[in-house]
Amino acid sequence: QVQLVESGGGLVQPGGSLRLSCAASGFTFSRYEMRWFRQAPGKEREFVADINWSGESKYHADSVNGRFTIARDNAKNKVYLQINSQKVEDPDVYYCNVNRDFGPGTQVTVSS
Asked: What gap in Å lies between CA 106 and CA 103, rounded to an integer?
């Protein structure tokens, strides 16, 4: 059974940084592309970034390109999202994804 558990969310000031983590289990992590999504209240979940099985190929949505960076550690079965220059308008719940499975999410609150 696939299990994804995000962590690392919290309160951040505008322009601040956080590193989100996602611990994966129940599947052979090193064989799968992993993704991050995010969602604002009342809006649809949106794609943020993905990373191939080896970590050599990454893609970031235009809205976060240059501010966010996806990474993975196959030895630890974890995928990360480094968030820099957080904006007030950035959606606040971040989800880890593999195939059709999502974790419960971790909330990032931007406040001065």
From this structure: 9
Positive or negative, the CA dihedral 37, 99, 29, 7 is positive
Residue with tokens 């950035």: 90
Measured between alpha carbons, how far is 103 from 112 in angstroms, rounded to an integer?
28
| Whether 105 contacts 81, CB under 8 Å | no
* Cα separation, 38 vs 2, whole angstroms: 20
Q: Cα 102 vs. chain centroid, distance in angstroms?
A: 11
Q: How far apart are CA 31 and CA 50, in angstroms?
A: 14
Q: In a 10 Å sphere around its CB, with 0-12 CB exposed, 13-18 middle and 19+ buried, how is residue 56 labelled?
A: exposed
> pLDDT tens across 4-26, in order?
999 999 998 888 899 999 999 99
> Using 50, 70 and 90 to split pLDDT, how confident is the model at 92?
confident
* Tokens coding 2: 């696939």
